[in-house]
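Weekly puzzle thread! Below is a chain. First person to post its structure in C-alpha coordinate form gets bragging rights.
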Amino acid sequence: MEIKQGYSYHIKDEFFDFVQDKYLMGNKENGNYRPHFLAIQDKIENEK
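Winning reply:
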Protein backbone atom coordinates (compact mmCIF):
# COMPACT_ATOMS: atom_id res chain seq x y z
CA MET A 1 0.00 0.00 0.00
CA GLU A 2 1.35 3.38 -0.96
CA ILE A 3 0.74 6.06 1.65
CA LYS A 4 0.14 9.46 0.05
CA GLN A 5 0.56 12.81 1.73
CA GLY A 6 -2.67 14.67 2.52
CA TYR A 7 -4.96 11.63 2.81
CA SER A 8 -6.67 10.03 5.78
CA TYR A 9 -6.36 6.27 6.30
CA HIS A 10 -8.37 3.97 8.55
CA ILE A 11 -6.93 0.94 10.32
CA LYS A 12 -9.04 -2.23 10.26
CA ASP A 13 -10.19 -3.82 13.51
CA GLU A 14 -8.13 -6.91 12.67
CA PHE A 15 -4.92 -4.86 12.96
CA PHE A 16 -5.50 -4.36 16.68
CA ASP A 17 -6.09 -8.09 17.14
CA PHE A 18 -2.93 -8.94 15.17
CA VAL A 19 -0.60 -6.38 16.80
CA GLN A 20 -0.43 -7.04 20.51
CA ASP A 21 1.39 -3.90 21.66
CA LYS A 22 0.65 -2.64 25.17
CA TYR A 23 1.69 0.91 24.16
CA LEU A 24 -0.68 1.10 21.17
CA MET A 25 -3.91 2.96 21.86
CA GLY A 26 -6.74 0.47 22.33
CA ASN A 27 -9.40 -0.02 19.68
CA LYS A 28 -12.95 0.82 20.77
CA GLU A 29 -11.83 0.92 24.39
CA ASN A 30 -14.31 1.98 27.11
CA GLY A 31 -17.09 2.63 24.58
CA ASN A 32 -14.92 4.88 22.41
CA TYR A 33 -14.26 4.49 18.72
CA ARG A 34 -11.06 3.57 16.89
CA PRO A 35 -8.16 5.88 17.85
CA HIS A 36 -6.89 8.47 15.38
CA PHE A 37 -3.22 8.84 14.51
CA LEU A 38 -1.43 11.64 12.69
CA ALA A 39 1.96 11.19 11.03
CA ILE A 40 4.10 14.21 10.21
CA GLN A 41 7.10 13.93 7.93
CA ASP A 42 10.32 15.30 9.40
CA LYS A 43 11.90 17.34 6.60
CA ILE A 44 15.26 17.62 8.42
CA GLU A 45 15.72 13.82 8.60
CA ASN A 46 15.00 13.44 4.87
CA GLU A 47 17.76 15.92 3.93
CA LYS A 48 20.54 13.77 5.43
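Puzzle host: Confirmed. Bonus trivia for everyone else. Helices lie at 13-18, 43-46.
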